[in-house]
Design goal:
By secondary structure, the protein is α+β, with helices and mostly antiparallel strands. The chain is built from three helices and 22 strands. The strands form five sheets. The chain has a six-stranded mixed beta sheet. Strands 3, 6, 7, 8 and 9 form a five-stranded antiparallel beta sheet that branches. It has a five-stranded antiparallel beta sheet with strand order 10-11-13-18-17, with no helix packed on it. It starts with a helix and ends in a 5-residue tail after the last strand.
Length: 390
Amino acid sequence: MSTIRVMLWLLCGAHTAAARHLRGNEDHRRDVQQSAGVQQEKQSIHEPLSWKFPDPPAEEQPRHPPEFELKTPTAADSISAVCGESSVRVVVKKDLLGIDKPVLPSDVTLGGCPATGEDPDAQVLLFESELHGCGSQLLMSPDSFVYVFMLLYSPSPLGDSPIIRTRDVSVNIECHYLRKHDVSSGLLTPSWAPFSVKKASEENLYFSLRLMTDDWQFPRPSAQFVLGEMMKFEVSVKQFHHLPLRVTVDSCVATLVPNIDTVPRYAFLGNNGCLFDSQLTGSSSRFLPQSLDNTLQFEVEAFRFHQDHSGVIYITCSMRATAASATADATNKACSFSNGWSEASGVHQACSCCETECGTGQPSPLTKQGDQWKQEVVAGPIVVNERPLP
């Protein structure tokens, strides 16, 4: 019996303790809920918070170093062209864009034509084409022919990447040819005078001084040469009602303007028909053998005046006509120097006075009659360019 009582007491005690613990938890939860309600009630009665995000910092004005200047790009002087009688020669620097970075030769074409040569030392590409080649276009006006070429640069991707750091470039190259035997590559601004200068005397004699092609078959349509190139001149006289005539050249003077009384001047032919240029400079200038009495041909190596950068020269020649029946003499001759003097018609003894002063010589039949014709003729302007880099 006593054992049963002890167990009942323990059970009752445990029940009482559990009940107390439950009541304590409920009281605690009620206190927490009341506290939270009080906090919520306190917040609801307060004014909205005044805090806000701060303003971003003011943007600073850019500052440049003292005396800073933006570089202005300048055009690269990397292309030059020489327009010839039937072709064009274009020289292109490998640093085409002027940025100290060479372009690939395969990226540059002249109207689709690749470079015909390359100079590793001068770092240039060379293009040569006939006037009708490499996609040129011919434009015509009442006064001129213009051949237009297009130099194209199309950059390839860099290495194995798909990027480029340059842009496509196209440059027009024009060769201008006047339809009256004159030519210009756009280098000169003065008006051009015809090269075939013909003047008639009162006796219906027509003198002519013309530049000729290399084969002497046609008047040369180009007035441009490079240093050392042969300038070929043909002198002629046309008669209508006269007995056959012989033409001679007494003198020729080169000047910068069409006036022989100016300086600098270079008298490369004088003393009544002596061509001094080969003797003075060691050039190959000479008279050609004369096959026709009324026509005389001579060639002079192209030259420029020292310290003159224009390259423009004028050639003034004094010409004379005498009877064709008269043989060459001291005053009617065409003498060249090459290890001695020789005369164009074969009368070499007529040149014996070229080292001194040629006298009057034997008068021709026309001179006896007082019927001798003289004429000064000017050829020019002639443009002599510096020879392109090899």
